[in-house]
Task: inverse folding
């Protein structure tokens, strides 16, 4: 059998998971497991680049691990970045194959450094924030990833990873690293139900996101109060709120309900209550399964921690092999392990 292509992606540990995160990224990760050799990392080293709290970082890391498994990621595909310290070692080596100027031009760096400057005049901007994309390149290249499922906002970082790989290959005179490619699957853009002109996000406040583990009553309430039509949309066009509800229905896989409600819409007799009811039903169904899995995982935290430490250990072997070869090629010394 032909070897499966390698997929790698990572996510920063931050609190709750909402339907925007799930439909916009995680569900895709879950599905990719059927086709590719997948590795997914919870990147706690990355989470230190902005001001943070150690206790919260550790809590969020395990919370995210639980959430990922509960939503369908296989535990054997998961690792925690700080349990594979070779990422940081490769990052150092890559620093020397990356142009400083290119790092200062990264959009995410410019956004995050100026944003904090504007809000708190004396905010601390770490060198880690500038170096963030180099660590990301290490995450990707250490597993010789062919494909990296990411959002459009990460394409620039991926381009940098390719530049680093190329510069390294040139320096050592060998096509050692595969050049990774972004996997830009078509994913639904989930908007806030309270304000469908902005993305569903946690930072905007409680009513702007729906937690995938939320209780049934809360989901129903949030969908019931979803903005539909504010009267600003030109006739003949679908308002952002209604569009968002339809895309939530589609993302939930309720194609029959989607088709029949869409037919109502086209005939001009769609009742928003019916659309909302269908969406609420779909989301409740998904969240119920996830919530049950999450409870089961939380009931045996010890087993879960063991499992993730073991999978990180297995994944680490691959990282160690790469770093060993890289050090050899780069003229560094290897200690035997
Ligand atoms: N920078 C990514 C984000 O903000 C997270 C990330 C870190 C990542 N390392 C990665 C994504 C490696 C893909 C591959 O979403």
Result:
């Amino acid at each position: 059998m032909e070897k499966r292509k390698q997929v790698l992606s990572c996510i920063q540990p931050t609190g709750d998971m909402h339907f925007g995160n799930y439909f916009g990224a995680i569900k895709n990760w879950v599905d990719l497991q059927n086709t590719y050799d997948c590795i997914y990392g919870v990147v706690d080293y990355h989470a230190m680049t902005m001001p943070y709290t150690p206790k919260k970082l550790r809590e969020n890391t395990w919370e995210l691990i639980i959430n990922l498994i509960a939503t369908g990621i296989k535990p054997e595909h998961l690792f925690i970045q700080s349990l594979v310290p070779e990422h940081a070692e490769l990052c150092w080596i890559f620093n020397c194959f990356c142009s400083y100027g290119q790092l200062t031009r990264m959009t995410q760096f410019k956004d995050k450094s100026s944003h904090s400057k504007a809000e708190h005049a004396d905010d601390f901007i770490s060198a880690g924030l500038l170096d963030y994309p180099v660590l990301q390149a290490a995450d990707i290249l250490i597993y010789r990833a062919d494909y990296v499922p990411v959002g459009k906002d990460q394409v620039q970082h991926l381009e940098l990873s390719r530049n680093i790989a190329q510069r390294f290959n040139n320096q050592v005179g060998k096509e050692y690293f595969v050049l990774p490619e972004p996997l830009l699957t078509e994913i639904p853009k989930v908007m806030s139900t309270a304000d469908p002109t902005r993305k569903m996000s946690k930072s905007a406040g409680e009513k702007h996101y729906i937690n995938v583990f939320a209780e049934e009553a809360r989901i129903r309430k949030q969908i019931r109060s979803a903005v539909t039509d504010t009267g600003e949309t030109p006739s003949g066009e679908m308002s952002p709120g209604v569009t968002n509800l339809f895309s939530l229905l589609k993302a939930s896989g309720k194609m029959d309900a989607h088709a029949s409600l869409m037919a109502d819409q086209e005939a001009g007799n769609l009742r928003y209550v019916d659309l909302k009811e269908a969406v609420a039903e779909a989301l409740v169904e998904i969240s119920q399964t996830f919530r049950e899995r999450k409870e089961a995982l939380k009931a045996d935290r010890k087993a879960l921690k063991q499992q993730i430490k073991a999978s990180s250990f297995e994944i680490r072997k691959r990282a160690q092999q790469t770093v060993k070869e890289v050090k050899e090629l780069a003229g560094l010394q290897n200690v035997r392990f």
About this structure: Residues 8-10, 12, 43, 46, 136, 139-140, 148, 150, 154, 157 surround tryptophan (CB under 6 Å). The longest strand covers residues 6-11.
